[in-house]
Amino acid sequence: MFDETTNSIICRKYLVGGGKRLWQLWKGTFLENDELCLFYAQKGSFYCDILKPLFLNFVKQIPHSENITALDFLIKDEKNFFILSGSLDRKIVCSNFNGNQEFKINSSVQMHRSSVETICILQENSNFLVLSGGGRSELFCWELIFEEQNAPQFNLLFSTELKNENNIDDIRVLCVRWIFGRRKFAVVLCSDATIRILQLNYLTKSIVESSRFQLCSMAMFSSINLAGLIEGTTTSSSQLLFSTTTSGYLYIFKLLILSNGTTKIDLIHEPYFVEKCGLSAISTEISPFNNHQHFILIGSESGSISILTFDSLLGNVENNIFVNLHASTITALKIWKSSIQDSTLLIASVALDCRLCIGNYIPDKNEFIPQIQICLSISDPAALIVLPNRTKKELNEEEADEKGFSCIVSGSGIECINI
């Protein structure tokens, strides 16, 4: 059910059995508030079901007119999350998502000439910087300014158009991330099979490419994920970058910023073959037992997930788990530590089969345990973020997992699922 007055999906799913039937919804005077009556005919019988609020899943207001391709979030205070979304309609929207699961659109901006493919937020004290990229080689840098009553406004700082090797701006910016924890550096994944480090100059309002890595094959990079900063020496600081390709390989890079301000992209491990199909999504988490060990979660076009480990000291990669989890391409996934079980990692994934899958990975036993599969009410899921169902003042860490977490999935709309 779709409410045109509020642009909201009201009912996710209500099962009445198979077979063709005639049906009609009715709002009767004898019904209580928020109740609806569903009449339907089936196999020679006539049925009347009252849909109570228990059966109604109010999916959040749709902030875009077309598919939502990018999500990120920021924490303004203990009670308010803000979600930034980008879409094929070229808009970026900032929405408030508070502790009561209320979702309110605050502001939007439309400066992109093509679809918005990626959004990334950097928080410096009380300041929020946003990078957005998409089609037509466009990359924008914004400042998100919060006015009275938590009303955010977008302030455009500067923008650029990235060029390919032929100096033509006909590429797509597929993913952008801030690196080194600084506002001056970012890494971008482009559709011309390149990964580039960019330097941002806020005085001259310019974005300059400082280094790049390009695939030599016909394949292209499909996703990237950053690990935490590596403790730097007096001459440099560095950060690990993991990337997947459409040919089924995992690439591991070290991003370096030297003392003279120059940057480098070093391939520190030979390309590691994961699966004989395109890899589509990646997420990483540091081991709860060893700060040098990274768990790498990879999703593929076959609908399977792989869990690998990379030891940054030894420099070796091991393939631990391979699971057929979805029926089609995995578009987004997340791996993170459980707050009450130190030896367990939680995993969430969404795919084009319109399902959200939740599972546990136990490193000690090298075991993956599927927990929940949920049918989404939106189509073409493209992005996923995970938020705790609590505020910092409401719950301690031991109570956090009891109350669970929220998976926010975007596609043809935005859906919030409380786990």
Jot down its keywords.
mainly beta, 32 strands, Methylamine Dehydrogenase, Chain H, 419 residues, 4-stranded antiparallel β-sheet
Describe what this molecule looks like in 3D:
This protein is mostly beta strands. The chain has 2 domains: 2-55, no CATH class; 68-418, YVTN repeat-like/Quinoprotein amine dehydrogenase (Methylamine Dehydrogenase, Chain H, 7 Propeller). It is 2% helix and 57% strand. The chain has one helix spanning 397-403, and strands spanning 2-3, 8-9, 23-26, 36-42, 45-51, 68-75, 80-87, 92-98, 103-109, 116-124, 127-134, 138-146, 152-161, 173-178, 185-190, 194-201, 206-214, 221-230, 236-245, 249-258, 263-273, 279-286, 293-300, 304-311, 316-324, 330-337, 345-351, 355-362, 367-375, 383-388, 405-410, 414-418. It has a 4-stranded antiparallel β-sheet, with no helix packed on it. A 4-stranded antiparallel β-sheet has the order 10-11-12-13, with no helix packed on it. The longest helix is centred in the last third of the chain and has 7 residues, at 397-403. Mean pLDDT is 83; it is low at 391-395.
Q: Which CATH architecture of the largest domain?
A: 7 Propeller
Overall 3D geometry? globular
Strand content: over 45%
Structural class: mainly beta
* Number of contiguous helices: 1
The separation of the N and C termini measures 23 Å
Number of domains: 2
Largest sheet: 4 strands, antiparallel
| Cα Rg | 23 Å
CATH fold label of the largest domain: Methylamine Dehydrogenase, Chain H
Biggest sheet strand line-up: 6-7-8-9
Count the beta strands.
Answer: 32
CATH superfamily of the largest domain: YVTN repeat-like/Quinoprotein amine dehydrogenase
Subcellular location: Cytoplasm
Keywords: Cytoplasm, Repeat, tRNA processing, WD repeat
